[in-house]
Amino acid sequence: RAMAVHAPRRCCLGWDFSTQQVKVVAVDAELNVIYEDSVHFDRDLPEFGTQGGVHVHKDGVTVTSPVLMWVQALDILLEKMKASGFDFSQVLALSGAGQQHGSIYWKAGASRVLTSLSPDLPLHQQLQACFSISDCPVWMDSSTTTQCRQLEAAMGGAQALSCLTGSRAYERFTGNQIAKIYQQNPEAYSHTERISLVSSFAASLFLGAYSPIDYSDGSGMNLLHIQDKVWSQACLGACAPHLEEKLGPPVPSCSVVGAISSYHVQRYGFPPGCKVVAFTGDNPASLAGMRLEEGDIAVSLGTSDTLFLWLQEPTPTLEGHIFCSPVDTQHYMALLCFKNGSLMREKIRNESASHSWSEFSKALRSTEMGNSGNLGFYFDVMEITPEITGRYRFNAENQKVSAFPKDVEIRALIEGQFMAKRIHAEGLGYRVMPKTKILATGGASHNRDILQVLADVFGAPVYVIDTANSACVGSAYRAFHGLAGGTDVPFSEVVKLAPHPILAATPSPGASQVYETLLPQYAKLEQRILSQTQGPSE
Ligand SMILES: O=C(CO)[C@@H](O)[C@H](O)CF
After folding, report:
1. Mean pLDDT throughout 454-480?
2. pTM, whole model, 2 decimals?
3. How many angstroms separate the alpha carbon of residue 179 from the centre of ligand 1?
């Protein structure tokens, strides 16, 4: 048969400007991925000398990425798509994601260049002189502790700042980064006409104008009042002068921010009517890609474990981060990070299951739910949630013991890790609902016995999903959402055709009774350890 020629297919593009690469997927109207490609900073742009896409400075705490590397990576990726014969004329809309918290500083006059790009030249050649800061701070930076303390002091303390902006002050959060640049490089700050996040910067490259910051990624700055969805004047003033005019007004994440620039129409053949939907942070975009719904939780079981929560009524605390939802302007999402994730599971596997996952699984299958009341806390590195380090074991009488039998130790680790997740999620206002689904991803999500414990502790079914492209795919879904009318159309409606996650485990009979008793005991012991170890001051 003659080679089947792919009939042109209407699609949306989803971009991800992440720490290590720029990635793109094309998704058709049936929500199938029909194209994907990427450019890796270290491999494809070695002249910038990054490692993992960043430069870690000699002080060990300052971490930046060269903005022109991001621009040039987009040039290369668009050229790769063109060379592969990708039909840009079929693109109805595009959206995207960026690593959260990073900031880009556009120099006075840059907007004139952005709006009059010549289609005969690549972007990076034309934007060479458009940035007042060439090495942009990114989320791995932790050089702004002073600015964090100043902001919390100005706002009445960490808890007050968390209630207003969804997080206490964190070094990587953009307001503190802007404050540092204003304090240490006032010249560059005064020559800055616009400050973008990585997400809104990337959108600007497609728009051919400054794209606004969306509510969801804007929630990662310690500057946005997350209930009212406006910049907090007090936070702005505490960070740097004339900041509001450099940020511009924030917009709902599903907003159509404009049509693609004529630069892309003429150079690549995008249709003039191709819509640009506001870009957002990589984690909010992943939540959209996982199609998290009210009451659901996504658990990413990686080096550190990350929890994605859907919250209707958030109760901001001193741990975790609450962001405006990227798919529902009335609701919120939260991130909770547990540093002792797979590295801790591998250590206990090596010590108590002779380096074997099948031994590890056998131990889980040969011990009962609730582990006969034995509880364990395993934090070989300083834990983030909560701030504890060390290992602590307690028997059914709440007495401290120095060791457990091997299979008890294994169940104590896994039950403890998942009980901690449920307790701290509920601390942020999360509640398990009858329709709750748990979406599991990451390495440990391939171990069915570990997922069984997850289902038992939460009393909810566990599904496994592949999230390799979740930020890109979520961005393409959000492009369809913006195209369909955004806030007036439920996101779940727009994405109902997408492939469904696979059911991996359902709660064992009697599970909720067991953990109803054990969860408060675990919480009490955690508080007891915290009070005894006096974690680093707040
Ligand atoms: O800092 C983070 C979230 O708060 C990271 O997950 C970055 O978004 C990674 F790019």
Report:
1. 96
2. 0.94
3. 20
